[in-house]
């Protein structure tokens, strides 16, 4: 029980010390989706990638951050958990799983201008990452 408090406090401090992008400030950029070629591969959080899960990859947001991604043209949105990293010099703000891309309506067109807003944090992602290390 005590360990949970330390983990929660540590995450709170980490989240508070994170860049503004990870604390609720909207970011605008391009979203793309990926799926078949990465399905089953290990992600940065230590889990296998499921192309139909509501997940995303980004270097701008901490692993475990839950973000709302809104297509600026259609106003459709989806909430995903950041579970993987992208290439640091990528012009893409977030790579979405195929399932999230389908919900957002970009599966056929491939990409969209989006707004991404952090809405929370998925602590299970942190737990999984800690377990995969030790």
CATH class: Mainly Beta
Helix content estimate:
25-40%
**Overall residue-averaged pLDDT value:** 81
Q: Please mark out the parts with pLDDT under 50 across 5 or more consecutive residues, or reply none.
A: none
Q: In angstroms, what is the radius of gyration?
A: 15 Å
Total helices: the number is 3
Structural class: alpha/beta
User: Main beta sheet, described?
Assistant: 6 strands, mixed, barrel
**Tally of discrete structural domains:** 1
Order of SSEs, N→C?
HEEEEEHEH
- Under CATH, the topology is which? Barwin-like endoglucanases
Strand order of the largest sheet: 1-5-2-4-3-6
Structure description:
This protein has 134 residues and is an alpha/beta fold. It has a single domain, classed as RlpA-like domain (Barwin-like endoglucanases). The chain has 3 helices and 6 strands; from the N terminus they run αβββββαβα. The protein has helices at 2-17, 98-104, 123-133, and strands at 27-34, 55-57, 65-71, 77-84, 92-97, 111-121. It has a 6-stranded mixed barrel with strand order 1-5-2-4-3-6. The longest helix has 16 residues, at 2-17. The mean pLDDT is 81.
């Amino acid at each position: 029980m005590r360990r949970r408090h330390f983990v929660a406090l540590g995450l709170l401090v980490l989240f508070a010390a994170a860049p503004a992008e990870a604390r609720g400030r909207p970011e605008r950029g391009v979203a793309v989706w990926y799926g078949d070629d990465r399905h089953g591969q290990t992600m940065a959080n230590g889990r296998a990638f499921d192309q139909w899960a509501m997940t995303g990859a980004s270097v701008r947001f901490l692993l475990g951050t839950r973000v709302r991604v809104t297509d600026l043209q259609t106003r459709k949105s989806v909430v995903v958990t950041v579970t993987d990293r992208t290439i640091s010099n990528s012009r893409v703000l977030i790579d979405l799983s195929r399932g999230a891309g389908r919900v957002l309506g970009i599966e056929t067109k491939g990409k969209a201008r989006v707004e991404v807003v952090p809405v929370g944090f998925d602590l299970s992602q942190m737990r999984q990452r800690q377990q995969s290390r030790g």
